[in-house]
Design a protein that fits this description.
The strands form five sheets. The chain has a seven-stranded mixed beta sheet, with helices on one face. A six-stranded mixed beta sheet has the order 10-11-12-13-18-19. It contains six helices and 19 strands. The structure holds zinc ion (ZN) (2 copies).
């Protein structure tokens, strides 16, 4: 049968004769199985239900790629254009012909990389729609891949996937949780694409850090410090979170440091002022 997509997280499993019994990503304490139990859908069913990919211009060289109506946890991906090809940063749980054509008109996709397993979506379908382009998965999160594919390339620490576009493994939320540093972003001041490796909160002057966002499990001091240390060497002003309305327009590392300080104060590591 057609490969199943988890209704709750939007991550596609390997094709199977019967729907899989469970979704390991949702059964992990960082996600949740929906009330009413595990449920599956497929690309065909999502299409029949009227879902479509929505593209939005965010700034020169950056396009948001989301789904209307939302699928899974409702994240949007980002298409970053560079002089030697485009990266699809993060993924979504759906793809359609119109999106493939529209992204083809923007130069297509040369590679796919995700911040972490909650955003794996239908990554293999996206790769195959663009000639099997590489899917970059951190070695540390390899076991979270639900549908293996020859396009998957393992990496660790840092990797420059396209010119001036670097993946940085930060850990924390997942061992392989990563950000992408886009040097040309924000008018050349640099942009950090973070998914929820750190998350841009509704007060978009701040980010926060959690082991589980839905289940509100905090992150220990050591992981918060590791994340900030990992991004500090990369100049950036703007921070793109994993959802349409989660963008810190300016503030860069100072805002991230300020956010980390506030977090460490409230978990009792630093003195509150
Ligand atoms: Zn799931
Ligand atoms: Zn997550």
């Amino acid at each position: 049968m057609e490969a199943c997509i988890c209704v709750t997280c939007g991550v596609q499993q390997a094709p199977s004769d019967e729907p899989p019994g469970h979704c390991p990503i949702c059964e992990d304490e960082r996600q949740y199985v929906r009330q009413g139990g595990q449920a599956w859908t497929t690309l065909t069913e999502l299409k029949e239900n009227g879902h479509r990919v929505e593209l939005r211009d965010l700034e020169p060289g950056l396009t948001g790629v989301g789904i209307e109506p939302a699928v899974g946890i409702g994240q949007r991906a980002l298409l970053v254009q560079t002089s030697d090809g485009n990266l699809l940063w993060d993924c979504i749980g759906y793809i359609d012909e119109a999106a493939v054509e529209a992204i083809g008109n923007r130069g297509g996709i040369a590679g796919i990389a995700m911040s972490h397993p909650h955003f794996y979506g239908v990554m293999v379908e996206w790769s195959r729609a663009f000639d099997g382009v590489p899917i970059y998965v951190p070695e540390a999160d390899m076991d979270w891949v639900q549908r293996s594919d020859p396009a998957i390339r393992l990496w660790r620490a840092t990797i420059e996937v396209l010119s001036d576009l670097t993946l940085v493994q930060c850990g924390g939320h997942f061992d392989g949780s990563a950000v992408a540093h886009w040097k040309a972003g924000a008018g050349g001041r640099g942009a950090l694409l973070v998914g929820d490796t750190m998350t841009v909160v509704p007060d978009v002057r701040y980010v926060s850090f959690m082991r589980s966002y839905p289940n509100l499990i905090p992150m220990p001091e050591s992981d918060v410090r590791k994340i900030v240390d990992a991004v500090r060497p990369y100049p950036f002003d703007r921070v793109y979170g994993g959802w349409w309305d989660r963008v810190m327009q300016a503030g860069g590392i100072e805002a991230v440091e300020r956010s980390a300080r506030r977090y460490l104060q409230w978990i009792g590591v630093l003195e509150r002022q």
